[in-house]
From TrEMBL, chain A:
Membrane topology of the entry: Multi-pass membrane protein
One GO molecular-function entry: monoatomic cation channel activity
Compartments where located: Membrane
InterPro entries from the UniProt entry: CALHM
Protein name: CAHM1 protein
Keywords: Ion channel, Ion transport, Membrane, Transmembrane, Transmembrane helix, Transport
Lineage start: Eukaryota, Metazoa, Chordata, Craniata, Vertebrata
GO biological process, one term: ATP export
Cited Pfam families: Ca_hom_mod (PF14798)
GO cellular component, as recorded: plasma membrane
Annotated stretches, region: Disordered: 308-330
Gene: Calhm1
Family: Belongs to the CALHM family.
From TrEMBL, chain B:
Key words of the record: Ion channel, Ion transport, Membrane, Transmembrane, Transmembrane helix, Transport
Species of provenance: Atrichornis clamosus
GO biological process: ATP export
Membrane topology: Multi-pass membrane protein
Domain of life: Eukaryota
InterPro entries in UniProt: CALHM
Protein name per UniProt: CAHM3 protein
Gene that encodes it: Calhm3
Length: 338, 306
């Protein structure tokens, strides 16, 4: 469907949109996981709290880390943070922006899980059933049970089929009480998260909007630059392979058919086209040096006019400069008129 | 449908995406397999543990092997590892990179199976119900040891007559399920932390070696594909020429008749170029043998300098 293709292309258009898509999918996946998960309260005094709080808190932590793991920007952030300075300065504001934007997206699925869990009520019922106020809700004057016994009986509240404390406190009463508290907590949590999100969005333009715009631009730039570099490398590899294989066939044919005078006439044209795309890098050692240089010494954010000798290294030459003649720190790119 | 074609094209855009797609499909297939598998615990003292642990560990091994088989890169890696040196050096870092990326992708489906099994709980209940301490559970405390083993072994079978409304059975079942789910979540947590640390810390160590290894492993894949395409094209032209030659020789034989067959020679000229002088079976065999035993060096400077 055309609509679907448009949506797909929109999300793919840049990494941030793509991550928004993944974030939405993870939020849906977290609700699906919760409904598919078979909650099974152990109904034993000390196990209940551990199980209930575990199900409330461990999956959100897993979803939070998963949000980081699925985000390609994390290796981009770590790379940008750890790379040698080279000819390009590093801006901590860009790194902070990238980290904050990743963290915000990664928080959504855990928040959804916690909200759904609280609104459903099973976790809180399981975890806190032994803390139900028997004096107010039940028959506290039941004299025959010790404290330990009462704990054991109350621990079975979530398990209706094995509950045997109907005289102490009605199962229905305890469950409703706990569920009510759980749902109240759930709604308060949702309200709190929404208010925070609203405040962050509406107050941010009031503070350092210019710095924010700059950080966002350069963070997108780093993302696009990395993608283009990978595409260029892939294109280069394709042309290299074509030329290499043609060379191989030619070599074989000259070996095998030395007597014949049919030489492949089409090959040089093909080789010419593919060879142009090689950008002057024609062997293993030079390519490795180019890749090493890309990491160790990123080019400055300054596009030279074509006539001048570039500091970028391998465009047209086989040797990237190991010592740039004029080391330039890229603080100049971040002029601020504020 | 158009939608699937688009998704298909996205995944085919490079081979890493294809591998990720296959890995995801295998993971979904493993969940589907588990939900459709009819788990049926034998409820007999010695058989329970074998069955329970068997269902937990044997399908993951099968899924791991499927992951290796379906991954094109595993063949490429083996070939690169075992080929003779020829005129091209071997880079162990590339082979290591390929191996680790293959292993990581192949491990996803087995891990998903194990985690789903643990979160569901049936396997562990079946395997360990006989190992429970009967003193902890009221219904089993005052029974003779032989009988208690039998009873505990029947815990996973809800519909058994002895167990149908037994509250102690439910207590044992809940207890084991709780442990199973806790184990499942813990394993998932540990794996995610490991994946997070690996992604976060990898750029801090040997980033340039990693860039090189990734580039050349991609190159090997592309080169193999282009070689196969070139060979396919060559064999198509070879076949075409062979057949034309056959018809030509037939024509020679019946030249005495009054038919004038059209000359089909002209079109063949251009194609001969594409055959690149390799025009018989022995030559093709020699070419393929040389491709394996003596891969060409990674140096195309002479071509570009013409």
């Amino acid at each position: 469907m055309d609509k679907f293709r448009m949506i797909f292309q929109f999300f793919q258009s840049n990494q941030e949109s793509f991550m928004n898509g993944i974030c939405g999918i993870m939020a849906l996946a977290s609700t699906q996981m919760y409904s598919a998960f078979d909650f099974n309260c152990p109904c034993l005094p000390h196990y209940n709290l551990a199980y209930g709080l575990g199900i409330l808190l461990v999956p959100p932590f897993i979803l939070f880390l998963l949000g980081f793991v699925l985000n390609n920007n994390i290796s981009m952030l770590a790379e940008e943070w750890r790379r040698p300075q080279g000819q390009r300065g590093k801006d901590p504001a860009v790194l902070r922006y990238m980290f904050c934007s990743m963290a915000q997206r990664a928080m959504i699925a855990p928040a959804v899980w916690v909200s759904v869990t609280l609104l459903d009520g099973k976790c809180v019922t399981c975890a806190f059933c032994t803390w139900v106020p028997v004096e107010t809700l039940g028959n506290a004057s039941h004299p025959h049970l010790s404290q330990g016994e009462i704990q054991r009986v109350l621990a079975r509240v979530p398990c209706k089929e094995i509950y045997n404390g109907q005289e102490l406190i009605a199962n229905e009463v305890a469950v409703r009480y706990l569920r009510c508290i759980s749902q109240a907590l759930g709604w308060c949590f949702v309200l709190l998260m929404t208010t925070l999100a609203f405040l962050v969005r509406s107050l941010r333009p009031c503070f350092s909007q210019v710095a924010f715009l700059k950080s966002r631009y350069w963070s997108h730039y780093i993302d696009i630059e990395r993608k283009l570099f990978d595409e260029t490398c892939a294109e280069h590899a394709r042309s290299f392979a074509k030329v290499c294989i043609q060379q191989f066939f030619e070599g074989m044919s000259t070996d095998l058919v030395a007597a014949r005078c049919h030489l492949p006439r089409k090959a040089p044209v093909d080789a010419g086209e593919a060879a142009e795309k090689l950008l002057g890098i024609t062997d293993w050692g030079t390519m490795n040096m180019a890749l090493k240089s890309w990491h160790r010494c990123k080019p400055p954010l300054h596009l030279h006019p074509p006539a001048l000798p570039t500091g970028n290294g391998w465009a047209g030459e086989g040797q990237p400069p190991t010592h740039p003649s004029v080391p330039r720190r890229e603080t100049a790119a971040y002029y601020s008129c504020v | 449908m158009d939608r699937f074609r688009m998704i298909f094209q996205y995944f085919q855009s490079n081979s890493e995406s294809v591998m990720n797609g296959i890995c995801g499909l295998l993971a979904l297939a493993s969940v589907k397999m588990y939900t459709s598998f009819d788990f049926s615990c034998p409820c007999l003292p010695q058989y329970n543990m074998a069955y329970g642990l068997g269902i937990m560990f044997v399908p993951p091994v099968i899924l791991f092997l499927c992951g290796l088989i379906l991954n094109r890169q595993s063949l490429a890696m083996l070939e690169e590892w075992r080929r003779p040196l020829g005129r091209r050096k071997k880079d162990l870092a590339v082979i290591r990179y390929m191996c680790s990326s293959i292993m990581q992708r192949a491990m996803v489906a087995p891990v998903v199976w194990i985690i789903v099994t643990l979160l569901d709980g049936k396997c562990l209940i079946c395997a360990f119900s006989s190992s429970m301490d009967p003193e902890k559970f009221v219904g089993f405390a005052n029974v003779s040891p032989v009988q208690v083993q039998q009873l505990l072994a029947k815990v996973p079978c809800k519909d058994d007559e002895l167990m149908r409304n037994n509250t102690s059975r439910k207590a044992v079942s809940r207890y084991l399920r709780c442990w199973s789910q806790a184990l499942g979540w813990s394993i998932l947590l540990i794996l995610i932390i490991a994946a997070f640390l690996a992604r976060w810390l990898r750029p801090c160590f040997n980033q340039d070696t990693l860039l090189q290894a990734r580039h050349w492993s991609n190159y090997i894949d592309i080169e193999q594909k282009i070689f196969e395409e070139t060979c396919c094209e060559h064999s198509r032209l070879f076949a075409h020429k062979c057949i034309l030659h056959f018809f030509e020789s037939m024509r020679q034989e019946i030249k005495l008749h009054s038919y004038s067959w059209p000359r089909e020679g002209e079109g063949a000229e251009g194609e001969e170029d594409l055959l690149r002088g390799i025009t018989d079976q022995d030559q093709v065999n020699k070419l393929l043998k040389t491709w394996y035993y003596e891969k060409p060096p990674l140096d195309v400077s002479q071509v570009t300098q013409r």
